[in-house]
Amino acid sequence: GVSASGGAAIGSAISGGDGTIEQPGAGLAVSPAVLNVRLGTTATSGFAALGRLLETGGEIYGYVNHVGSGFSSSAVTPNQPFAFTGLISPVQLLDVTYATNSRTTETITVKSNAGDAVLATGRGVGPTFATNMGVHPDTTINLGSTSVFHSAAFHLILSNASADLGLNSPLTSLEIVSIELSGPDAAAFSVDNLIPKLLYEGQHANLPIHFHPTEVRDYQATLTIRTDQGAANGAAGQTFSYQLAGGGVVAVPEPASIALLAPLAAMASSWRPRSSACRRRRLSRGKLVRDR
Questions:
Q1: What is the rounded distance in angstroms from the CA atom of residue 225 to the CA atom of residue 194?
Q2: Cβ(88)–Cβ(1) under 8 Å?
């Protein structure tokens, strides 16, 4: 046979010929395994099928050229040879297992005198937590100065920015496991219920954060969002925290109240007491009399 890259023989020399590689009368048939693994979970397994097309004639020889580091299988190792001879050759089913902790793509490839092929592909996939542009975890969300006993709000948009699979799949879905407020002034802040809590690729949800001071001073708290990113679906995964800040200030009268107070102030400034010589008049029994 003819050797390639130190691997097993590919093809066979034609008997009595000049040593050229024999061209098969049928092509290599491969049904590859596609193994997507959710990051933070255990390995996944599948079967790859290797065989010859149904046409008769020709022998196919080859070997396993490359096995990605994330694959494990007793049936597939580098430089492992295979051959399909005779009129009927059975299909080889190869059980392969793939595991990874990173977003990567690895393959198992084979070479043969009928061509090269990918026998299996493994990928690490998962959700990607994201929020409003410019609002990153571990930064401060400042809700500004708010009059005491009044309220202010900030809308934090949570999203799943993953585009690993391009479809709704539990392999890349993002679940918001819990939302917590903590810190010295946690009572001055509140959040609404998040709907939905499960976000598929490209989906988002609105999380309103409210600030309602009761004193004239500065307030601080911590917002912690727990997700299943980097873990199995619904399990405790990565957490993302934000610092919340706000200031309580003296309440300013509403414009409508100021408009009502203005005429009263004008009347008060123009009023003068009358002299003691003035007499009030009153009507008694139909007659006008003077007070004494």
A1: 11
A2: no
